[in-house]
């Protein structure tokens, strides 16, 4: 087994190519062990060099709603009314802790995403940055 650290993009691409070749390796074989190690190395490299930030809470909510073919009325039934849901989706109201809990339990959006700060439109022109938990 000739495995080396992934130090640059060339090493990364070579490791990905080797993973593709080993993908169908049988469990408990030397090839499978090599595949497992390579996947671990690639994961570590990608986590360090291709970090993706968590999404904005409202964008995450909209995305999950879209995936589940939900409308604002469906969200309203979950969090306490269609107008409240519309205000949340239009960033005119912050998510409350109770709403976050219900959304997490019903839609599976992680709470660490839902509690992130995000832009809420103020009653005046423009936006202000406020915490997402009331």
UniProtKB/TrEMBL annotation:
Alphabetized SUPFAM superfamilies for the sequence: lambda repressor-like DNA-binding domains
Q: Which InterPro entries match?
A: Antitox_HigA, Lambda_DNA-bd_dom_sf
- The organism named in the record is Leptospira ilyithenensis
Using the record for this protein, list the coiled-coil segments as residue ranges, or answer none.
none
Q: Provide a Gene Ontology MF annotation, just one.
A: core promoter sequence-specific DNA binding
Protein name in UniProt: Transcriptional regulator
Sorted alphabetically, the Gene Ontology BP terms of this entry are:
regulation of DNA-templated transcription
- Residue stretches spanning the membrane: none
């Amino acid at each position: 087994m000739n495995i080396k650290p992934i130090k640059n993009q060339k090493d990364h691409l070579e490791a990905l190519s080797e993973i593709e070749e080993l993908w169908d390796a049988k469990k408990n074989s030397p090839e499978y062990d090599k595949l497992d190690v390579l996947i671990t190395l690639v994961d570590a490299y990608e986590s360090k060099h291709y970090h993706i930030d968590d999404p904005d809470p409202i964008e995450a909510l909209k995305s999950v709603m879209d995936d589940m073919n939900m409308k604002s009325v469906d969200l309203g039934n979950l969090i306490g009314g269609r107008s409240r849901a519309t205000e949340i989706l239009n960033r005119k109201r912050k998510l409350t802790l109770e709403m976050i809990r219900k959304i997490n339990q019903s839609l599976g959006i992680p709470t660490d995403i839902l509690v992130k700060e995000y832009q809420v439109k103020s009653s005046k022109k423009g936006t202000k940055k406020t915490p997402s938990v009331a």
